[in-house]
Structures are given as structure tokens and as C-alpha cells.
Design brief:
The chain has about 210 residues and is an alpha+beta fold. It folds into 2 domains: about 20-90 and about 130-190, 3-Layer(aba) Sandwich (NADH Oxidase); about 90-125, no CATH class. The protein has helices spanning about 5-15, 30-40, 60-65, 75-80, 95-105, 115-125, 130-155, 165-170, 205-210, and strands at about 50-55, 80-90, 155-160, 180-190. Strands 1-2-4-3 form a 4-stranded antiparallel β-sheet, sandwiched between helices. Helix 5 (about 95-105) runs antiparallel to helix 6 (about 115-125). It is globular and about 60 Å long.
Length: about 210
């Protein structure tokens, strides 16, 4: 397996920024989108529960309605692909069993052999009371990170967007009664030549400020 050099990674991360204006005429290729989609599916999550749903919007009629659920921001309308990462509201026993069944099938082991793991997960999730949605929402940001870095490595622009109105977004995307709720959005595509922020220098604190070495 080939390895991406450290220099290339750092160059790509320096190149990326939270794109404010997208070129609405440029679209992500099917080949590159497949990579991005696989990246978010491959994201890690606590216990491997994958408590999310990825809603990918490319239909322009729907995209034109997205700014109303994103505080009037234009990126969802003008980008190539807009992704809403929705968190699962609960993590009940049936959902845990779904994971156990999938693990047994994928690894060709008896379901019974995973009983200890199942009980460990149930012990964790069962002790959360009403905290499932908050926990699952935090998992969504892991997937967002995978999406942003993969996009940068592909030379695709992106803008993570917490500025969404959850109830409006859920209603627009048909999530209201699904057991999932919009947590964070991400616009992906290609920057507009008129986006003044593309050339702005990044402001990042130094390693001395941010990293404690022990």
C-alpha cells in the first residue's frame, strides 16, 4: 500500500480553508465522490456503533431550500454536494444487536461468541439515561473530520457548518420521524475565484501554546 508523504499532507492541510463561496458550475466527479463517501463510512465510532446517518444532497431544487435551514448561508445552495451528518437519537438494545449481528457475519464467528462484547456495550449505553443523542452527536464530528481531511487530500474544497437550524433541516430532509436528527453539515465542491478568504493567511496558535508534552 502506497503512503502519502508527510509533506503532501501538510501542504494539503495548509491549502484548505472553510470555503465561503463555491463555484456552482463545478461538480465533484463520481470517482472522487465515491472516495469521500467511503471515507465517511470508514470513520471510527465508539464501540463501532456508527450512530449516524449521512444525508447527501445534490438535487438543486432541494439545495435551493437549504439556506433557509442554514441561517441564510449560501454554501449549501452553491456547492456540489452538501452532506448533513445526523445523529441517532437513541442507542437501544435492538441497535446494539444490529452491530453484533453485523460483526458476527463479517468475521464469520458465532453470534454467541460476542456476548461479552454485547454486554459491555449495553452496560455503557444502558447507563446513559437520556444522554444517547449527545454522545452520538459527538461521534458525528469524528466522521466530519474524516470527510474534511479526505476532501483536502483530493483537492476538493469544503466548509463545515454548525450553523444549521436542526428542526428545519430535519423537516426538509425527512428526518423528523426517523430516529435521527441533523447535527452538522458540510458543503463540498470547488472555491469560487471571487472568494476573498481563499488567499487569507491562516491564524493558528503555535505548538508551544497548544501542545503539552509529558
Amino acid at each position: 500500500m502506497s503512503v502519502v508523504s508527510g509533506d503532501v499532507i501538510l501542504q494539503k492541510l495548509a491549502w484548505r480553508y472553510a470555503t465561503k463561496e463555491f463555484d456552482s458550475t463545478r461538480k465533484i466527479s463520481d470517482e472522487n465522490w465515491k472516495v469521500l463517501e467511503t471515507a465517511i463510512i470508514s470513520s471510527p465510532s465508539s464501540y463501532g456503533l456508527q450512530p449516524w446517518k449521512f444525508v447527501v444532497i445534490t438535487n438543486q431544487t432541494v439545495k435551493d431550500q437549504l439556506p433557509d435551514a442554514a441561517w441564510g448561508q449560501s454554501q449549501p445552495k452553491d456547492c456540489s454536494h452538501y452532506v448533513v451528518i445526523a445523529a441517532r437519537k437513541t442507542t437501544d438494545a435492538d441497535y446494539v444487536q444490529k452491530l453484533i449481528d453485523a460483526m458476527a457475519a463479517e468475521r464469520s464467528v458465532p453470534v454467541e461468541s460476542l456476548s461479552g462484547y454485547k454486554q459491555a456495550v449495553l452496560s455503557k449505553t444502558g447507563g446513559m439515561s437520556n444522554g444517547h443523542q449527545e454522545w452520538n452527536s459527538r461521534q458525528c464530528y469524528i466522521a466530519l473530520g474524516f470527510l474534511l481531511e479526505t476532501a483536502a487530500l483530493l483537492g476538493i474544497d469544503a466548509c463545515p457548518m454548525e450553523g444549521i437550524v436542526r428542526d428545519k433541516m430535519d423537516l426538509l430532509l425527512g428526518l423528523t420521524d426517523t430516529g435521527y436528527t441533523a447535527t452538522v453539515g458540510c458543503a463540498l465542491g470547488y472555491r469560487s475565484s471571487s472568494d476573498k478568504y481563499a488567499e487569507a493567511k491562516k491564524v493558528r496558535y503555535s505548538a508551544a501554546d497548544l501542545i503539552k508534552r509529558i
